[in-house]
């Protein structure tokens, strides 16, 4: 249980220091504005939006001014609310405190039917200064500060599985440790030049791509910031976006250590047709490291460049299809291909095709004259070992896997998983935002498919740098059985996760540049076979019997449990 001294200290920090719960809209790709903007595009109030989020501050302003003058009074009010919230003051500070709690009931552990309960709490204070400035084609947005919280509790443990938000990702190198509290710094800023048709930007921020505001196969807004440069070009015939980011490689032997020299290049070409009812996009992403390769800044296929260079880089190529059969409704589907055996795939022998890919499809719907702002439904799938990459170029750091400072840049799901999610956004009035989400997830550890002899050979030189938890960090060092088959969810032990969540933001007071925002959140979660995503093997083994015993011990550790997550916060902006 948290001590009273920690509560008093964190509350003092939260009240005295200037804090902010919301990042500036032009540095935060998960801001509420982007959910509304998708709806405005579907309704035809604004033209095609840029492919990459966040947008430059002048583009955000132009979108809001366009919607403010539309005939839809409900949407016009929302636009005016955003204009006041973001542009009434070029610099914003605030103060507040945040409380989170988690209660867990373990229903079944191994083969022993018994119950036990556990709870944990966390209080944090955050200090931020944020603002926007633009004049003509030039724009500047920033949001920088620090987060102070009681130690001993990992922030991600206060969210359901694979639901971690993009804030407060606690990269240890940014920590300052005190006696009773920890502090982590969070810095975001973007400088842009251009207009909605052609602009470039340089910044340190998160980036999102795709039709779902809080998820992406290839550029997930729930990732980690990166020093980056982007170019966006839109005209009546096509839209082109290019991104280059300097990201962090993680140490295989110490996950809290990171190194520079890892790079991400991304580009996407979108072609709309049939009066914007259809749009076809081709996108590519490549991760490489230890040496900078300027060829990946060229607007040519990365697959060809990598093939010429020897195919040593981690290249993902994909397509996205958008279809708007009616106004207010869009069907979207996308796939990112890592590796596969084409001949087996064409013969529809999917398990023999060794597919290393991620898929997502669903719809986005924005009702008319309704307090429901946006409804999104999506099905996501990640096959085993997708996004992961065994890097042999360095004995210590992984420069090739699809992570930034060990945080996944693709879907938040680990490999060998799928997910169905329905999310609804309600705005009965502009200053009240209610979000509900229902999710069902399946996940299995692909290491369970390996034969004991293969595991023995994998761990013959020890366990350092080998992760058998089934996440994007997992590797099999080129074992043939893992590379020759897909084995999607064919393991004996499957984890099932069911979640129901709601989150309420209420702007209870606003006068000029001053406002008070309250937040309430609750998530219910049931997990069957919790622990499947924990390491299966953790030491060197000398014989098959030891491997078998380790696997059986892992199978006994899984448990069924219920989780309850609570969140309350109060923020004062001025």
Question: What would your notes on this structure say?
Answer:
The chain has 574 residues and is of the alpha+beta class. It is built from nine helices and 24 strands. It has helices at 4-16, 32-43, 57-68, 73-87, 302-309, 342-346, 452-458, 480-484, 544-557; strands spanning 52-53, 91-109, 116-135, 138-150, 175-177, 181-194, 198-205, 208-209, 226-234, 239-251, 254-273, 278-289, 314-326, 329-339, 356-365, 372-382, 397-398, 403-404, 407-408, 417-426, 432-443, 495-511, 514-530, 559-573. It has an 18-stranded antiparallel β-barrel. A two-stranded antiparallel sheet has the order 1-8. It has a two-stranded antiparallel ribbon with strand order 18-19. A hairpin with a 6-residue loop joins strand 2 and strand 3. Helix 3 packs antiparallel against helix 4 (73-87) and helix 7 (452-458) crosses helix 9. The chain is globular, with a radius of gyration of 24 Å. Residues 1-23 have low confidence and may be disordered.
Brief rundown of the structure:
By secondary structure, this protein is α+β, with helices and mostly antiparallel strands.
Tell me the layout of helices and strands.
Blueprint: H1 4-16, H2 32-43, E1 52-53, H3 57-68, H4 73-87, E2 91-109, E3 116-135, E4 138-150, E5 175-177, E6 181-194, E7 198-205, E8 208-209, E9 226-234, E10 239-251, E11 254-273, E12 278-289, H5 302-309, E13 314-326, E14 329-339, H6 342-346, E15 356-365, E16 372-382, E17 397-398, E18 403-404, E19 407-408, E20 417-426, E21 432-443, H7 452-458, H8 480-484, E22 495-511, E23 514-530, H9 544-557, E24 559-573
Antiparallel strand pairs: 1-8, 2-3, 2-24, 3-4, 4-6, 5-6, 6-7, 7-9, 9-10, 10-11, 10-17, 11-12, 12-13, 13-14, 14-15, 15-16, 16-20, 18-19, 20-21, 21-22, 22-23, 23-24
Helix pairs in contact: 3-4, 7-9
């Amino acid at each position: 249980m948290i001590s009273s001294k920690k509560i008093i200290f964190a509350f003092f920090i939260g009240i005295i220091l200037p804090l902010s719960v919301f990042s500036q809209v032009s540095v935060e790709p998960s801001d509420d504005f982007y959910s509304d903007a998708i709806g405005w595009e579907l309704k035809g109030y604004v033209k095609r939006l840029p492919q990459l989020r966040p947008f430059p501050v002048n583009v955000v302003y132009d979108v809001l001014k366009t919607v403010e003058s539309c005939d839809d009074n409900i949407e016009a009010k929302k636009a005016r609310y955003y204009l006041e919230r973001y542009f009434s003051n070029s610099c914003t500070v605030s103060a507040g405190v945040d409380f989170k709690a988690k209660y867990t009931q373990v229903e079944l552990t191994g083969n022993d039917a018994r119950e036990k309960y556990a709870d944990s709490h966390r209080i944090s204070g955050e200090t931020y200064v944020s603002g926007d400035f633009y004049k003509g084609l030039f724009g500047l947005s920033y949001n920088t500060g620090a987060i102070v919280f009681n130690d001993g509790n990992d922030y991600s443990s206060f969210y359901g599985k694979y639901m971690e938000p993009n804030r407060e990702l606690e990269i240890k190198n940014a920590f300052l440790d005190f006696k009773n509290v920890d502090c982590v710094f969070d810095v975001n800023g973007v400088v842009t030049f251009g207009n909605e048709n052609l602009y470039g930007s340089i910044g340190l921020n998160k980036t999102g791509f795709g039709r779902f505001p809080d998820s992406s196969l290839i550029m997930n807004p729930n990732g980690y910031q990166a020093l980056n440069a982007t170019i966006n070009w839109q005209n009546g015939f096509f839209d082109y976006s290019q991104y280059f980011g300097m990201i962090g490689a993680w140490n295989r032997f110490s996950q809290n250590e990171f190194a520079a020299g890892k790079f991400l290049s991304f580009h996407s070409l979108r072609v709309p047709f049939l009066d914007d009812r259809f749009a076809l996009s081709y996108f590519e992403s490549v991760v490489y490291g230890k040496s900078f390769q300027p060829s990946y800044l060229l607007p040519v296929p990365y697959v060809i460049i990598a093939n010429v260079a020897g195919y040593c880089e981690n290249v993902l190529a994909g397509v996205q299809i958008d279809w708007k059969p009616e106004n207010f409704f869009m069907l979207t589907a996308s796939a990112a291909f890592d590796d596969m055996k084409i001949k087996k795939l064409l013969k529809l022998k999917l398990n023999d095709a060794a597919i290393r890919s991620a898929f997502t499809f669903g719809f986005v719907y924005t009702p008319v004259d309704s307090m429901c702002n946006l409804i999104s439904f999506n099905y996501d799938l990640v096959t085993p070992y997708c996004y992961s990459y065994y890097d042999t170029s360095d004995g210590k750091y992984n420069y090739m896997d699809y992570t930034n400072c060990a945080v996944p840049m693709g879907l938040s799901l680990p490999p060998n998983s799928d997910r169905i999610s329905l999310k609804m956004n309600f705005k009965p009035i502009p200053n009240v935002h209610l979000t509900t989400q229902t999710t069902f997830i399946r996940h299995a550890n692909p290491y369970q498919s390996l034969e004991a002899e293969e595991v023995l050979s994998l761990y013959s030189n020890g366990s350092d740098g080998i992760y058998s938890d089934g996440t994007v960090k997992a590797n099999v060092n080129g074992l043939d059985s893992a590379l020759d088959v897909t084995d999607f969810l064919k393991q004996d032990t499957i984890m099932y996760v069911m979640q129901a969540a709601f989150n309420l933001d209420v702007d209870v007071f606003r006068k000029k540049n001053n406002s008070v925002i309250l937040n309430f959140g609750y998530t219910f979660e049931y997990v069957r076979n919790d622990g499947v995503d924990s390491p299966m093997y953790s030491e060197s083994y000398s014989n098959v019997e030891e491997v078998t015993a380790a696997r059986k011990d892992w199978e006994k550790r899984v448990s069924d449990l219920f989780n309850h997550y609570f969140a309350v916060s109060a923020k004062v902006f001025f």
